Amino acid sequence: MKNKRGISAVVATVLIILITVAAVAIIWAAIIPMLSSQIGKSNACITAQSQLEIVDACANKGNNIPPPNHIDPVLNITIKRGTGDFDLKDIALTIYKGGNSKTYKISNLSTKEIPNSGEQKKYVINGADIVSITGDQYDVIGNIDKVAIAAIVVTDNKETTCTTTPTFKVSKC
Predict the structure, then answer these.
(1) Please, which residues bridge with residue 152 across strands?
(2) Could you tell me the pLDDT band of residue 173, with boundaries at 50, 70 and 90?
(3) What single-letter DSSP state applies at residue 140?
(4) Percentage of the residues of the chain whose pLDDT score is greater than 90
(5) Which of 66, 71, 74, 154 has its CA 20 to 30 A from that of 162?
Protein backbone atom coordinates (compact mmCIF):
# COMPACT_ATOMS: atom_id res chain seq x y z
CA MET A 1 0.00 0.00 0.00
CA LYS A 2 1.03 3.52 -0.63
CA ASN A 3 1.77 5.81 2.25
CA LYS A 4 -1.04 8.48 2.08
CA ARG A 5 -0.67 11.53 4.22
CA GLY A 6 -3.06 14.50 4.36
CA ILE A 7 -2.97 17.78 6.17
CA SER A 8 -4.03 17.77 9.75
CA ALA A 9 -7.33 19.28 10.91
CA VAL A 10 -5.46 22.07 12.71
CA VAL A 11 -3.57 23.15 9.58
CA ALA A 12 -6.77 23.00 7.52
CA THR A 13 -8.61 25.18 10.05
CA VAL A 14 -5.78 27.74 10.11
CA LEU A 15 -5.76 27.89 6.29
CA ILE A 16 -9.52 28.43 6.14
CA ILE A 17 -9.29 31.22 8.72
CA LEU A 18 -6.44 32.91 6.80
CA ILE A 19 -8.31 32.71 3.50
CA THR A 20 -11.44 34.17 5.15
CA VAL A 21 -9.50 37.04 6.74
CA ALA A 22 -7.78 37.80 3.42
CA ALA A 23 -11.13 37.82 1.57
CA VAL A 24 -12.70 40.15 4.15
CA ALA A 25 -9.70 42.51 3.94
CA ILE A 26 -9.89 42.67 0.15
CA ILE A 27 -13.64 43.30 0.15
CA TRP A 28 -13.27 45.88 2.94
CA ALA A 29 -10.59 47.76 0.99
CA ALA A 30 -12.80 47.88 -2.12
CA ILE A 31 -16.19 48.64 -0.57
CA ILE A 32 -15.41 51.13 2.23
CA PRO A 33 -14.10 53.96 0.00
CA MET A 34 -17.19 53.62 -2.19
CA LEU A 35 -19.53 53.70 0.79
CA SER A 36 -17.81 56.61 2.51
CA SER A 37 -17.99 58.66 -0.69
CA GLN A 38 -21.73 57.99 -1.01
CA ILE A 39 -22.30 58.73 2.68
CA GLY A 40 -20.42 62.04 2.32
CA LYS A 41 -22.64 63.05 -0.61
CA SER A 42 -25.78 62.02 1.25
CA ASN A 43 -24.82 63.97 4.37
CA ALA A 44 -24.01 67.09 2.34
CA CYS A 45 -27.34 66.86 0.50
CA ILE A 46 -29.34 66.22 3.67
CA THR A 47 -27.77 69.27 5.30
CA ALA A 48 -28.21 71.45 2.21
CA GLN A 49 -31.82 70.46 1.56
CA SER A 50 -32.80 71.04 5.18
CA GLN A 51 -31.24 74.52 5.00
CA LEU A 52 -32.83 75.74 1.73
CA GLU A 53 -36.46 76.70 1.33
CA ILE A 54 -38.68 78.68 -0.99
CA VAL A 55 -40.33 81.44 1.02
CA ASP A 56 -42.43 82.96 -1.77
CA ALA A 57 -43.01 82.59 -5.49
CA CYS A 58 -45.26 84.57 -7.81
CA ALA A 59 -45.42 85.18 -11.56
CA ASN A 60 -47.03 87.56 -13.99
CA LYS A 61 -47.74 86.83 -17.61
CA GLY A 62 -46.64 90.17 -19.03
CA ASN A 63 -48.07 91.31 -22.35
CA ASN A 64 -47.13 91.50 -25.99
CA ILE A 65 -47.88 95.21 -26.33
CA PRO A 66 -45.05 97.20 -27.95
CA PRO A 67 -43.17 99.77 -25.81
CA PRO A 68 -43.79 102.03 -23.96
CA ASN A 69 -46.65 99.92 -22.47
CA HIS A 70 -44.86 96.59 -22.77
CA ILE A 71 -44.58 94.49 -19.60
CA ASP A 72 -42.09 91.62 -19.45
CA PRO A 73 -43.24 88.37 -17.87
CA VAL A 74 -41.54 87.88 -14.51
CA LEU A 75 -41.13 85.11 -11.96
CA ASN A 76 -40.33 86.35 -8.45
CA ILE A 77 -38.94 83.69 -6.15
CA THR A 78 -37.55 84.19 -2.66
CA ILE A 79 -35.14 81.55 -1.35
CA LYS A 80 -33.99 81.36 2.24
CA ARG A 81 -30.76 79.66 3.31
CA GLY A 82 -30.25 78.52 6.88
CA THR A 83 -27.06 78.86 8.87
CA GLY A 84 -25.92 75.23 8.47
CA ASP A 85 -22.37 74.62 7.28
CA PHE A 86 -22.25 73.21 3.75
CA ASP A 87 -20.54 74.12 0.48
CA LEU A 88 -23.38 75.41 -1.70
CA LYS A 89 -22.11 75.77 -5.28
CA ASP A 90 -25.38 76.65 -6.99
CA ILE A 91 -29.15 76.16 -6.85
CA ALA A 92 -31.16 74.28 -9.46
CA LEU A 93 -34.58 75.88 -9.98
CA THR A 94 -37.22 73.59 -11.46
CA ILE A 95 -40.23 75.27 -13.06
CA TYR A 96 -43.40 73.21 -13.56
CA LYS A 97 -45.90 74.24 -16.20
CA GLY A 98 -48.87 72.16 -17.29
CA GLY A 99 -47.35 68.80 -16.36
CA ASN A 100 -43.96 69.60 -17.90
CA SER A 101 -40.87 70.84 -16.10
CA LYS A 102 -37.57 72.49 -16.88
CA THR A 103 -34.59 73.02 -14.60
CA TYR A 104 -32.31 76.05 -14.64
CA LYS A 105 -29.23 76.87 -12.61
CA ILE A 106 -29.46 80.14 -10.70
CA SER A 107 -25.90 80.96 -11.84
CA ASN A 108 -27.08 80.96 -15.49
CA LEU A 109 -29.70 83.65 -14.84
CA SER A 110 -29.19 87.43 -14.62
CA THR A 111 -29.24 87.28 -10.81
CA LYS A 112 -26.30 84.96 -10.34
CA GLU A 113 -25.56 85.16 -6.62
CA ILE A 114 -26.70 82.38 -4.36
CA PRO A 115 -27.79 83.25 -0.82
CA ASN A 116 -25.07 83.38 1.82
CA SER A 117 -25.43 81.53 5.10
CA GLY A 118 -28.44 82.85 7.04
CA GLU A 119 -29.55 85.04 4.12
CA GLN A 120 -32.81 85.34 2.21
CA LYS A 121 -32.56 86.39 -1.42
CA LYS A 122 -35.24 87.42 -3.90
CA TYR A 123 -34.71 86.47 -7.53
CA VAL A 124 -36.54 88.29 -10.29
CA ILE A 125 -36.37 86.04 -13.31
CA ASN A 126 -37.61 87.66 -16.48
CA GLY A 127 -38.83 86.01 -19.64
CA ALA A 128 -35.66 86.94 -21.52
CA ASP A 129 -33.60 84.93 -19.03
CA ILE A 130 -35.73 81.85 -19.55
CA VAL A 131 -35.84 82.26 -23.33
CA SER A 132 -32.07 82.80 -23.58
CA ILE A 133 -31.46 79.53 -21.77
CA THR A 134 -34.15 77.31 -23.28
CA GLY A 135 -35.57 79.02 -26.36
CA ASP A 136 -39.06 78.57 -24.87
CA GLN A 137 -41.91 80.87 -25.77
CA TYR A 138 -41.75 84.23 -24.08
CA ASP A 139 -44.97 83.78 -22.07
CA VAL A 140 -43.78 80.63 -20.28
CA ILE A 141 -43.41 82.48 -16.98
CA GLY A 142 -47.01 83.61 -16.66
CA ASN A 143 -48.30 80.06 -16.87
CA ILE A 144 -46.12 78.49 -14.18
CA ASP A 145 -47.93 76.16 -11.76
CA LYS A 146 -45.23 75.50 -9.18
CA VAL A 147 -41.49 75.62 -8.56
CA ALA A 148 -38.94 73.61 -6.61
CA ILE A 149 -35.27 74.01 -5.81
CA ALA A 150 -32.37 71.63 -5.36
CA ALA A 151 -29.02 72.36 -3.81
CA ILE A 152 -25.90 71.79 -5.88
CA VAL A 153 -23.15 71.00 -3.39
CA VAL A 154 -19.47 70.17 -3.64
CA THR A 155 -18.26 66.90 -2.12
CA ASP A 156 -14.89 65.34 -2.85
CA ASN A 157 -14.22 68.15 -5.38
CA LYS A 158 -17.27 67.08 -7.42
CA GLU A 159 -20.57 68.87 -7.91
CA THR A 160 -23.61 66.90 -6.77
CA THR A 161 -27.19 67.94 -7.48
CA CYS A 162 -29.36 66.94 -4.55
CA THR A 163 -33.01 65.96 -4.78
CA THR A 164 -35.52 68.79 -5.09
CA THR A 165 -37.40 70.31 -2.20
CA PRO A 166 -41.18 69.88 -2.13
CA THR A 167 -42.85 71.95 -4.81
CA PHE A 168 -44.10 75.43 -4.03
CA LYS A 169 -47.33 76.69 -5.66
CA VAL A 170 -46.76 79.88 -7.64
CA SER A 171 -49.27 82.67 -7.12
CA LYS A 172 -50.05 85.55 -9.49
CA CYS A 173 -48.15 88.79 -8.84
Answers:
(1) 90, 161
(2) confident
(3) G
(4) 18
(5) 74
